[in-house]
Design goal:
CATH superfamily: Tubulin/FtsZ, C-terminal domain
Strand content: 25-35%
Number of domains: 1
Mean pLDDT: 85
Helix content: 25-40%
Number of strands: 8
Strand order of the largest sheet: 1-2-3-4-5-8-6-7
Number of helices: 5
CATH topology: 60s Ribosomal Protein L30, Chain: A
Oligomer: single chain
Radius of gyration: 17 Å
Shape: globular
Low-confidence stretches: 1-10
Length: 207
């Protein structure tokens, strides 16, 4: 592997945790996430990384507040305030429970490409699985117009059951047809407890 992590990052430790400055203690994680507008300074981030033993830090940009880029931060993800928990769920790859999976090394590799990422999502409910897959896929693809030249992309599939090979093929073909041939795409999937819900979530590197 290009990157190695030590034994402290075992399967029972979350890949990603959202940290707040008001926490009494920082639980362990591989990816330390924080909301930029919470006004973390460099000293506070260094302390966060040390106490959480995080392999690397990722900032979540939920507004237009200015933020000084620091070397200690691996990358920034732009999302809406109500999407924060969903971003953490995408990054917490240790909790994935289906046949399509990645690990924290892949997430590290994703952030090696660029510093700024965008979060997008698409979901459908109350449809048959075939209709849900097609509708959610088209919704997601329509949001990729600005991402045609993205070189790194992570797509997560969430459904009540593990996606079949046919479902995965449909989604991957639709996504890959829109991007350039040299784009590198990571896929993961997880089970959701929301009945009749099919959801696609993605992170892509902004140019």
């Amino acid at each position: 592997m290009k990157y190695q992590i030590d034994d402290s990052y075992r399967d029972d430790i979350p890949s990603a945790v959202l940290y707040r400055q008001t926490m009494d203690h920082y639980p362990k994680s591989a990816i330390g996430c924080f909301i930029i507008s919470d006004v973390w300074d460099e000293e506070a981030l260094i302390e966060l990384k040390e106490k959480s033993e995080a392999w690397f830090l990722v900032g979540l940009q939920i507004d237009d507040s200015e933020f000084k880029r620091l070397d200690i931060i691996e990358g920034v993800i732009r999302c809406q305030p109500n999407e924060v928990d969903k971003v953490i769920r995408v990054l917490d790859v240790n909790s994935a429970s289906t046949i399509i999976g990645i690990d924290v090394v892949d997430i590290k590799s994703l952030f090696e490409y660029g510093n700024s990422f965008q979060f997008i999502q698409a979901s459908t409910t109350g449809e048959s699985i075939s209709k849900s897959v097609k509708a959610a896929t088209q919704q997601l693809v329509s949001q990729f117009i600005k991402a045609r030249h993205a070189k790194r992309l992570l797509v997560t599939i969430e459904s009540i059951e593990s996606p079949s090979l046919e479902v995965f093929s449909y989604i991957s073909e639709a996504v890959e047809a829109l991007l350039s041939n040299d784009a590198y795409i990571y896929y993961s999937s997880r089970i959701t407890d929301e009945p009749d819900c099919f959801c696609l979530k993605a992170l892509y590197a902004e140019e």
